[in-house]
Design a protein that fits this description.
Elements: H1 6-33, H2 42-49, H3 53-56, H4 63-87, H5 92-108, H6 111-123, H7 129-144, H8 153-172, H9 181-191, H10 196-218, H11 221-224
Helix pairs in contact: 1-2, 4-5, 4-6, 5-7, 5-8, 5-9, 5-10, 6-8, 7-8, 9-10
Length: 225
């Protein structure tokens, strides 16, 4: 009798499970991205994925848990895409304001994406872990420079995340346009302790940085290299 490699069998099982979970997430992404589709259900997602409905429950508890996982993935993807623009700004608070501006513009332009982001922030305590690390690094740098008045970096990060979450809810409900993003960025900076004039200047600078990044993204790849 051939010797069974239990470790390899387990590895194959994990790989298959990962592929199936990814297929469900991709199908959900397609469903939520379709503006003409009816309300998203477990049935519609699994039909899109070409999988049996029962398979869903091997990977997710319910539709909200799927939405939270998809929102978390979207947050990570958006943050990664924006990282070059973020790194182009050296001053911590300006870097934070630029990142928040770009992020809020993205979700304001896509209500379905905004709803998923808002849900993920509520449902997943460690949502966007990489995003939170970068956020806290920027806040720590701003605190060292005396640019924010909130004494705790942890509290400051929670303030930023809470305000972004509210913006995502508004965007998801179709109640937030890109034109309102500078006001939101100013509000976030004021909540961190910036003066009115300082918050206004940084928000304006962040908007210009975001515009520059958008222009660079719009250029053909050959021109950017």
């Amino acid at each position: 009798m051939a010797r069974i490699d239990l470790e390899r069998r387990a590895e194959i099982g994990r790989e298959k499970r990962a592929r199936t979970r990814a297929a469900i997430l991709d199908a959900a992404r397609a469903c939520y991205a379709d503006p003409d589709a009816p309300s998203v259900t477990i049935e519609s997602v699994m039909q899109q994925a070409g999988l049996a409905k029962g398979t869903f429950y091997l990977h997710f508890t319910d539709l909200p848990s799927l939405e939270a996982a998809l929102g978390d993935a979207l947050i990570a993807e958006l943050a990664e895409r924006h990282e070059p623009a973020r790194q182009a700004v050296t001053e911590p608070l300006a870097r934070l304001a630029t990142a928040v501006t770009i992020f809020l513009r993205d979700i304001a332009e896509a209500p379905a994406r905004a709803r998923l982001v808002a849900h993920a922030i509520v449902a997943l305590p460690d949502v966007g872990e990489a995003v939170q690390i970068r956020l806290k690094d920027d806040l720590a740098g701003a605190k060292e420079r005396g640019q924010i008045a909130v004494g705790s970096v942890e509290l400051a990060s929670r303030i930023v995340i809470a305000l972004v979450q509210q913006a995502a809810f508004l965007s998801g409900a179709g109640k937030l346009e890109s034109s309102a993003v500078p006001d939101l960025v100013r509000a976030i900076l004021r909540a961190l302790g910036c003066t009115p004039d300082g918050a206004a200047k940084r928000a304006a600078d962040a908007a210009r940085n975001a515009d520059m990044f958008a222009q660079q993204e719009a250029q053909p790849q050959s021109r950017r290299q």
